[in-house]
What we know:
2 copies of one chain form a homodimer.
Chain A: E1 2-10, H1 28-40, E2 47-48, E3 57-67, H2 76-81, E4 88-96, E5 108-117, E6 130-132, H3 138-145, E7 150-153, E8 168-179, E9 182-189, H4 196-208, H5 217-223, E10 238-244
Parallel strand pairs in A: 3-10, 5-6
Antiparallel strand pairs in A: 1-3, 1-4, 2-3, 5-9, 5-10, 7-8, 8-9
Helix pairs in contact in A: 3-4
Amino acid sequence: MRNIKLTIEYDGTNYSGWQKQANTNNTIQEEIENAIEKVVDEKVTIIGAGRTDKGVHGRGQVANFNTNSRIPEEKFKYAINRYLPEDIAIVESIEVEEFFHSRYDALGKKYKYLIYNAPVKSPIFRNYSYYIPYKLNIQSMDKAKDYFIGKHDFAAFMASGSSIKDTIRNIYYISLTNCNNIIEFEIYGDGFLYNMVRIIVGTLIDIGRGKIESDSIPNILKSKDRKNAGHTAAAEGLYLEKVCY
Amino acid sequence: MRNIKLTIEYDGTNYSGWQKQANTNNTIQEEIENAIEKVVDEKVTIIGAGRTDKGVHGRGQVANFNTNSRIPEEKFKYAINRYLPEDIAIVESIEVEEFFHSRYDALGKKYKYLIYNAPVKSPIFRNYSYYIPYKLNIQSMDKAKDYFIGKHDFAAFMASGSSIKDTIRNIYYISLTNCNNIIEFEIYGDGFLYNMVRIIVGTLIDIGRGKIESDSIPNILKSKDRKNAGHTAAAEGLYLEKVCY
């Protein structure tokens, strides 16, 4: 069977997240599987690189699926898009080797996170950023963010209740820009625990508000205790930008 | 009576445009008037600086209204926002002198226009940009745009059927940037004819596709004939950024 790799963009606003669930049929995975099945006329299961949560957006999500269809690789995207709603699109489709696995083979992931920081919430960015009305100390956030770079045990920055055992991850870089009321983070690492990006950003916001000291990140990491980190930043500010192989 | 000036942001996606109309109650003007009336408990008419079309967005629309209410000027925005849907927000409210008129007193307006140029339409930017799948020659668009700068008779760049007599306008500047599949224009001038920004952008797109010569703008202007200019770019790419007084 052929193995097809898809690069996918989606507006996560109206979905219950990426992954198929028992109690809803409103997931991005299902929308794409249903569209592919109409194209290839076979039952299909796609494997996504990252299971984005309800409201989280995808700019460069990756998924792969097996098929007997003989459609040329680059034609899949147009054929599948014909059956997708306008808030999901396949932006690239290529054939990959038999054993390629979107999730297990990922060497790194890049996320973007947008905060809208102004006295009034933005109508245009309302579903595409996390609204923070409070004045933030950007300098202390910018200083604190660098503590995350490198190989650390991120247990304190994982949603409580996760069952993952190996909580060591390597953050290659994290950037912060602040322009026209929008604070933008880019975070690139070898992998991320459940809610890790959102807890990192939430902690940096709490530092910007003065609720957490800007030099306390090393101690929070060391504690491995979720309770010491900051709040979980909202889903609508998060974008899965790219998956690297 | 007091005269209150509002600066307004809105996502125009779900509205029939700014201006109140006989055959629809789905306008931005009405939403804001209804919200203000709930706050001040008087009948109110607001005067908007620009009558944006269906689907066009506002980042810095300005409107004013008269009221006997004694609410402190800066409190109006919070009070009115409480009654507005989440796709419209008052971002500033100040008291101005008696005869200030949002439209007649405007000395300049700044618009932004976004084109999304890629092989597949973007789900995230679908309502916030004009999707162009064709390859565009950005260099010739960039060269051609400068012909619009200065004082010209823009009759050829006005929607046919407009009854305006004085079609001379002054464009102070126009910029083009091209980054991550998004082509962004900023256009600042003393005033704009009906659909003028969208016809200017549509003409530049037609130049980018090679359908119109990049040095033909002076002749199109001279002709004063709408038929010689390019197509009207879509509403969803247009943003009223700022009104200057």
